[in-house]
TrEMBL record:
Catalytic activity: N(6)-[(R)-lipoyl]-L-lysyl-[protein] + 2-oxoglutarate + H(+) = N(6)-[(R)-S(8)-succinyldihydrolipoyl]-L-lysyl-[protein] + CO2
Listed name of the protein: 2-oxoglutarate dehydrogenase complex component E1
Annotated organism of origin: Ursus americanus (American black bear)
Gene3D superfamilies tied to this protein: 3.40.50.12470, 3.40.50.970, Multifunctional 2-oxoglutarate metabolism enzyme, C-terminal domain, TPP helical domain
Localization: Mitochondrion; Nucleus
Gene from which this protein is expressed: OGDH
Sequence ranges assigned to domain Transketolase-like pyrimidine-binding in this UniProt record: 711-925
Molecular-function annotations in GO: metal ion binding; oxoglutarate dehydrogenase (succinyl-transferring) activity; thiamine pyrophosphate binding
Cofactor: Mg(2+); thiamine diphosphate
GO biological processes: 2-oxoglutarate decarboxylation to succinyl-CoA; cerebellar cortex development; glycolytic process; hippocampus development; olfactory bulb mitral cell layer development; pyramidal neuron development; striatum development; tangential migration from the subventricular zone to the olfactory bulb
Listed InterPro entries: 2-oxogl_dehyd_N, 2oxoglutarate_DH_E1, DH_E1, KGD_C_sf, ODO-1/KGD_C, THDP-binding, Transketolase-like_Pyr-bd
A Pfam match: Transket_pyr
GO-annotated cellular components: mitochondrial matrix; nucleus; oxoglutarate dehydrogenase complex
Family membership: Belongs to the alpha-ketoglutarate dehydrogenase family.
Domain of life: Eukaryota
């Protein structure tokens, strides 16, 4: 194949024999011996022509030439000699060819994409000029003499019998043209210039609507345009090059239908694409297809065009956004509402994202946002009735007896309607949230994941999430980083979230330079390769285009994307705040700033899209809507929080939101079900699967337990889960190391020891038509993961969603989710949630960070009154207690009770969060076993487990009644037996701490009339349960007796780190518990 014929052969070339150098002279379809040095392989050349095919083949040829360059069969000595001796010459010659992009007649083989092939031919020629075709010999001799590639080639004569002799007589060019260096360097410079715009153009884009600040804080980036004339010299260009025509590389779309442009036009188009009101950050993305997609969306000439109808729709949405804030300001000028003034474009931006997503098949959008602009979003995006919003401003209205409620700018909403643009049904849900910024992010993600799961949306094509952020919080809150890192994990991905940052360039009173160290508030998104689109909010059409692209990106690649709305805040942090105290110059400029609605209306009037009367009519029409809603709001007599429910559960409650019953069926099971689940739990349900030898012993032990009709902790959990799956209840268990279990007791995921990543989940092989079981190791995060699971549990009441802490001590990293969502969620937002927290707890000498789940904190937040004895004669007292509490706190001492409380969580006719302090040492304690008899049909969860030994047989002889909870019971029984005090000391276990079992404890106290009462715990006195139990126990007995304390002394740390000290403390509390004279001096 000659240089002249190479371009025709490329289109259909196939190489048979890797590492071969192509023959320089071959006809179509011929089979020839490769003349490469040391190579004697047969290759075949197929010729095909056509521009479309050629483009496709060049990609294949690229891979082919790469292989040839790496695998060319030279000996070691040849390789060293060839590359060391000929590298300087090769660099000079091949450097010209690699960068040659300007088309020259009859030399398409000189394209830079063929450089590896040409390099192979060149090294063969250097070793033996006769080993290559004569045309290659002439070409390389001319090039070495200094001729440009475009003139070094001489076309061979037609391949006739006499042509070879003519070819042999061909001579090199007499005069070589040395100007190739400048040509190549200029093209390289232009490519570097284009790349500079793509990488750094956003730094100089005109993003600040106020025109006084840079959107980024990177002081090393020049403030002027990258390619100003005085900077062309950096690229080796000067003003004389501006009108030269340069071939455009394939990594840009600025040419449109043109493949070459003058430098001046190249710069102008790059300026228009990257340095106006849109700044695009994307060149850190590693995926070439994604980068090309973004380039095409922003570089193609004329791509950002809007029809007149689209412009009128945009104007109407801006009118609604602006006039809504104006109406609130007129009616309630002294009320906090955290208005949207300065970023009114947010409303049409969100509606554009929703419209485009709906067009692409999405029918459910779940949103989360902070307080700024929330009422406007509720009114004009979610479409909450305006009168319901206006009612929230009426201080005279009495709240319904549905909870404590929340301020109006924290409330959520759920609404299903027709999208007027796409004429498709769309469901919108705005999740209620606290003032803790960004805390709702993982909650929204979890709810989105759940909705996708329940509708079988495995690719995120039907359900999506939109998260709104403030600039200071997006950069400052660590939960943002945690949430981003969940975005692509298999059990947590929602297949892309659209993030919209309301970047008003201030955080309350803090300037950006004091609020972050990164150039942009959005830089955290770079960790997951999410493209970031910065846009000037005073250019509504640019905002709409960016939002449209963001929605298309999400539907195309199913990955996160960020829209950075660079705007300003017209008022202070709230309507009562004075911003001039801290930002005087900024707010002087804001006072002069013309509102975006006025700017855009004037633009459309000047373009003839609308006229002034039409614009004014649109304003008066919306003002009338607001006034009429305001009039209707005066008819409201009471505020209902239930009108703001963000996650309804259709069919679970009655129409007025009440439970369908106030009873709970038995949580026990038939023996057949228990046995079947136990057999599956102790076996491998798939064939050809090799498990670890240690795990084989564990499964064998489980099998023996089943034969003996007994369960340990792991088996009890297995039976609770397996039985619920049979009843169609989805179970999701999440947390760090939950698949195996922190303490290697669970083993819900089996790993094949011979095949990498081959796993088996026996729980999913229990029943033919069971619900799915999801068990997933989480990222090393508590805050983000617990928030995610809380959101997952919001979606449906017919699922058991559990989060397990690696150790209970670590839950306080997620304290915000516990304090702001789980504990008060129903009271604030009338939203029930059945999430379960499994918190390993127990003082076992493992130090201060591996001992305590801080039960005192959970108990402190329980909403019952310690000084009021409830009506113990009330029907269904225990169920009513559960219904009235804010959460349930238990500390089970037996596997059977653990089994029952898990099943009760689903069988109850309502949902409450469940906090379980789970054991560590009891997982393998020989006495921590439960018989099948205590788990059969008719059995139930025991709130209190009374004494059942010798003391219970002669209660009048009992001198001390010890109350305790959890693991310490086994220490007490061991000590009691060792001291021979089974008849003198009774021990009662409180399994459910909240709501407090007043009724059952009263029965226990009355049973032992001569006994003094003491609470025993292994925790320190200022921690644990004592401060919670003592006043309630005293109320139970009408303060007839004191309640003594047997336990560790008060301490700052939860536990000692010294093993000897731990054992000494334990023995001291046991001595106190069984010394019948211990409290005489305190009487």
């Amino acid at each position: 194949m000659t240089p002249g014929h190479a371009h025709g052969a490329w289109a259909g070339l196939r190489l048979q024999g890797r590492g071969c150098v192509l023959t320089p002279h071959a006809e179509a379809g011929s089979r020839v011996w490769c003349p490469g040095v040391g190579c004697r392989r047969l290759i075949r050349v197929e010729l095909s022509r056509g521009q479309t095919v050629v483009r496709d083949v060049r990609t294949r040829m690229f891979h082919l030439r790469t292989c040839a360059a790496k695998l060319r069969p030279l000996t070691a000595s040849q390789t060293v000699k060839t590359f060391s001796q000929n590298r300087p010459a090769a660099a000079r010659t091949l450097g010209q060819i690699r960068c040659f992009t300007t088309p020259v007649a009859a030399e398409p083989f000189l394209s830079g994409t063929s450089s590896n092939y040409v390099e192979e031919m060149y090294y063969a020629w250097l070793e033996n000029p006769k080993s290559v075709h004569k045309s290659w010999d002439i070409f390389f001799r001319n090039t070495n003499a200094g001729a440009p590639p475009g003139t070094a080639y001489q076309s061979p004569l037609p391949l006739s019998p006499g042509s070879l002799s003519a070819m042999a007589r061909a001579q090199p060019l007499v005069a070589a043209q040395p100007n190739v260096d400048k040509l190549v360097e200029d093209h390289l410079a232009v490519q570097s210039l284009i790349r500079a715009y793509q990488i750094r153009g956003h730094h100089v884009a005109q993003l600040d609507p106020l025109g006084i600040l840079d959107a980024d804080l990177d002081s090393s980036v020049p403030a002027d345009i990258i390619s100003s004339t005085d900077k062309l010299g950096f690229y080796g260009l000067d003003e004389s090059d501006l009108d030269k025509v340069f071939h455009l590389p394939t990594t840009t779309f600025i040419g449109g239908q043109e493949s070459a442009l003058p430098l001046r036009e190249i710069i102008r188009r790059l300026e228009m694409a990257y340095c106006q009101h849109i700044g695009v950050e994307f060149m850190f993305i590693n995926d070439l297809e994604q980068c090309q997609w973004i380039r095409q969306k922003f570089e193609t000439p004329g791509i950002m065009q809007f029809t007149n109808e689209e412009k009128r729709t945009l104007l109407a949405r801006l009118v609604r956004s602006t006039r809504f804030e104006d109406f609130l300001q007129r009616k309630w000028s002294s009320e906090k509402r955290f208005g949207l003034e300065g970023c009114e474009v947010l409303i049409p931006a969100l509606k554009t994202i929703i419209d485009k997503s709906s067009e692409n098949g999405v029918d459910y959008v779940i949103m989360g946002m902070p307080h700024r602009g929330r009422l406007n979003v509720l009114a004009n995006v979610i479409r909450k009735e305006l009168e319901q919003i206006f009612c929230q401003f009426d201080s005279k209205l009495e709240a319904a007896d549905e909870g404590s409620g929340d301020v109006k700018y924290h409330l959520g909403m759920y609404h299903r309607r027709i999208n007027r643009v796409t004429d498709r049904n769309i469901t919108l849900s705005l999740v209620a949230n606290p003032s803790h910024l960004e805390a709702a992010d993982p909650v929204v993600m979890g709810k989105t994941k759940a909705e996708q799961f329940y509708c079988g949306d495995t690719e995120g094509k039907k359900v999506m999430s939109i998260l709104l952020h403030g600039d200071a919080a997006f950069a400052g809150q660590g939960i943002v980083y945690e949430t981003f890192h969940l975005s692509d994990l298999p059990s947590y991905t929602t297949h892309g979230t659209v993030h919209v940052v309301v970047n008003n360039q201030i955080g309350f009173t803090t300037d950006p330079r004091m609020a972050r160290s990164s150039p942009y508030p959005t830089d955290v998104a770079r960790v997951v390769n999410a493209p970031i689109f910065h846009v000037n909010s005073d250019d509504p059409e640019a905002v709409m285009y960016v939002c449209k692209v963001a929605a298309e990106w999400r539907s195309t690649f199913h990955k996160d994307v960020v829209v950075d709305l660079v705007c300003y805040r017209r008022n202070g942090h709230n309507e009562m705040d004075e911003p001039m105290f801290t930002q005087p110059l900024m707010y002087k400029q804001i006072r002069k700033q013309k509102p975006v609605l006025q700017k855009y209306a004037e633009l459309l009037v000047s373009q003839g899209v609308v006229n002034q009367p039409e614009y004014e009519e649109e304003i008066s029409k919306y003002d009338k809507i607001c006034e009429e809603a305001f009039t209707r709001s005066k008819d409201e007599k009471i505020l209902h929080i239930k009108h703001w429910l963000d996650s309804p559960w259709p069919g679970f409650f009655t129409l007025d939101g009440q439970p369908r019953s106030m009873t709970c069926p038995s949580t026990g099971l038939t023996e057949d079900i228990l046995t079947h689940i136990g057999n599956v739990a102790s076996s491998v349900p798939v064939e050809n699967f090799t498990i670890h030898g240690g795990l084989s012993r564990i499964l064998k032990t489980r099998g023996e337990l089943v034969k003996n009709r007994t369960v340990d902790w792991a088996l009890a959990e297995y039976m609770a889960f397996g039985s619920l799956l049979k009843e169609g209840i989805h179970i999701r268990l999440s947390g760090q190391d939950v698949e195996r279990g922190t303490f290697s007791h669970r083993h819900h995921v089996l790993h094949d020891q011979n095949v990498d990543k081959k796993t088996c989940i026996p729980m999913n092989h229990l029943w033919p038509n069971q619900a799915p079981y999801t068990v997933c190791n989480s990222s090393l995060s508590e805050y983000g993961v617990l928030g995610f699971e809380l959101g997952f549990a919001m979606a449906s009441p017919n699922a058991l969603v559990l989060w397990e802490a690696q150790f209970g001590d670590f839950h306080n990293t997620a304290q915000c989710i516990i304090d702001q969502f789980i504990c008060p969620g129903q009271a604030k937002w009338v939203r029930q949630n059945g999430i379960v927290l499994l918190l390993p707890h127990g003082m076992e000498g493992m130090g201060p960070e591996h001992s305590s789940a801080r039960p005192e904190r959970f108990l402190q937040m329980c909403n019952d009154d310690p000084d009021v004895l409830p009506n113990l004669e009330e029907a269904n007292f225990d169920i009513n207690q559960l219904y009235d509490c804010n959460w349930v706190v238990v500390n089970c001492s037996t596997p059977g009770n653990f089994f029952h409380v898990l099943r009760r969580q689903i069988l109850l006719p309502f949902r409450k969060p469940l906090i379980i302090f789970t054991p560590k040492s009891l997982l393998r304690h020989p006495e921590a076993r439960t018989s099948f008899d205590e788990m059969l049909s008719g059995t139930h969860f025991q709130r209190v487990i009374p004494e059942d030994g010798l003391a219970a047989q002669n209660p009048e002889n009992v001198k001390r009644l010890l109350f305790c909870t959890g693991k310490v019971y086994y220490d007490l029984t061991r000590e009691r037996k060792a001291r021979g005090m089974e008849e003198q000391v009774a021990i009662t276990r409180i399994e459910q701490l909240s709501p407090f079992p007043f009724d059952l404890l009263l029965q226990e106290v009355q049973k032992y009339p001569n006994a003094e009462l003491a609470w025993c715990q292994e925790e320190h006195k200022n921690q644990g349960y004592y401060d919670y139990v003592k006043p309630r126990l005293r109320t139970t007995i009408n303060r007839a007796k004191p309640v003594w304390y047997a336990g560790r002394d008060p301490a700052a740390a939860p536990a000692t780190g010294n093993k000897k000290t731990h054992l000494t403390e334990l023995q001291r509390l046991l001595d106190t518990a069984f010394d019948l004279d211990a409290f005489k001096n305190f009487s």
